[in-house]
Structure formats: C-alpha cells, structure tokens
Amino acid sequence: xxxSTESHKSSTRLAILEAAIQVFARLGYSGTNFRExxxxxxxxxxxxxxHFQNKETLWQAAAEDVEKRFNAAFDSVFxxxxxxxxxxxxxxxxxxxxxxxxxxxxxxxxxxxEGATDSPRMEWLSRHFAPPRALRVQYRDPDIQKRLHTxxxxxxxxxxxxxxxxxxxxxxxxxxVATGKSSAGTYELTPAKREELLDYLLRLIF
Length: 206
Prior knowledge:
The chain has twelve helices and no strands. By secondary structure, it is mostly helical. α6 (105-115) packs across α10 (152-166). The longest helix is centred in the N-terminal third of the chain and has 29 residues, at 3-31. The relative contact order is 0.10. The mean pLDDT is 89.
C-alpha cells in the first residue's frame, strides 16, 4: 500500500471519528445513526463500517478519544505541587477539572447522555471517565481525603461540575427568565461565575 493511500485511509478514519464524537455527544448512542455521521464527514455507511465494524465499536473509539482529550486538557493545567492548605488543594483540583470540562465539552455531554442508563457504555464510563491524576490528589486531613475520594461528596462535586458546564445554555436561559434579564452571565462561563461556583463547592467540602 502506498504512503498516499495509507495517509488517505488515516485521514478518512479521523474524519469519521471526529464526526462520530460530535454526533454521539449531541444525540447519545441511542439517538445516533449513520446518517448524521455521514452528513458531517461525507463517509457512507459502508466506509464507516469498514473502519469501525459496527456502531458499538465506533462509540467505543469515540469515547476513548474524548477521554484522551479530556485527560490531556486536565494534565496541561494541573501540576502535582503542594498547596498551602487542603482548601487550596481542593480549589486547585476543582479549577483544573472545570477548565478541562470547558475545553472538551464532549466529555460532559457523553457523560450525561450515557451515564443515565444502565448499559455497557455506562459501565465503561464508570471505569474510565475520570482523570487519573485527579484521583491521586492527596490531602493532609484524612477525613477530607476520604470524603473527596470515596464518599457521596465526590459524586456530588463531579456531577455538579459536569452538569453546570454541559447544561450551561439551559442554566443561562433559566436564570435570565427568573431574573427578568436578557443574560445571566452563566454561559459562556464568566470568570466571576466560575469563581462563585468554586466557592460554593468549597463550602460543601469544608
């Protein structure tokens, strides 16, 4: 096989994968069919199946790619340095997680759409959709360490961040309606709202 042919196959596969990520994030696994993916990348169903065998394999590849992007986004802003206090450590970790969510919105979209239904996809997400370095964050207070790694508080924090970023447009419109304003400043997440969110989450922890 020539280098140009191999390059064309690789670029076609990447185009299919990128289209699949966008469609799965927007419509979920159950709502996705090959027509939407074809509309985005131009590859017909037969070519999609040539590269990915079936819909489940394509979803798996898409989820793995989103996981890699999210982990890379988290790692790009997170350094394992000692903070002045457990409070500062928690704020820093939450802030990095929030930045990664904003950079890779498909992460939260896939998490919400597939995490609500018991399925092989939900099981896969439960094992993979968490940045490894975030799970290794250490706190001085053993009680804080336990609460942030194994208690329901961990789930509350993760769900709040994912939902706040992913449902940003809905939260923006809802708050604007409630306050009678044209804009509430929730979406896109403004610096002030970002700090307000982190402050509320820290109150839950401490």
